[in-house]
Amino acid sequence: DVNFHPKVRLDSFDIDRTLxxxxxxxxxxxxxxxxxxxxNPPFRxxxxxxxxxxxxxxxxxxxxxxxxxANSASQVTIQMPLPKTTVKASCQMGPAASGQxxxxxxxxxxxxxxxxxxxGGTEHFLRCRVxxxxxxxxxxxxxxxxxxxxFTIPMFNVSRLQVxxxxxxxxxxxxxxxxxxxxxxxxxSYVCRL
Length: 194
Known about the structure:
single chain; mainly beta; four-stranded antiparallel beta sheet
């Protein structure tokens, strides 16, 4: 599933994977694609649900960044629906929790955990104690999840697609383009079932 900028000419793309284009002014995306091939996901999310009493459940979320430490993800948000009967939820983050926030949004009955920046090769956890109004912990566990995650990882490419060579031909003297390529991995539907 690939789409190219309208200025891209694909005359020799099928033969030698070469793209030719007359670039427009400013920054633009030459190609967007979606891969369905096997790949190693950049994050692993683990959840544990423990009954700690007749009216309480401990939810432990652990996220592991399985990409190189040289990269970091930004705009990371992890959301998990909690039971509709939740009375309150209190959150406790693990050590080294700077740049993180966790809160229970009562209006939507969701646990929301955000990171300003999440470094590759790290692991973080969040413990949330959920209080229920009555003894129905078993039913409440079925109402939790799935976990949704949104993120952006600049200069990281999960599919390993690469631009090997960039050449600028027929340059006009008044036009001085910057020659660079930016890779971005973004989530659009990253869901972890319980």
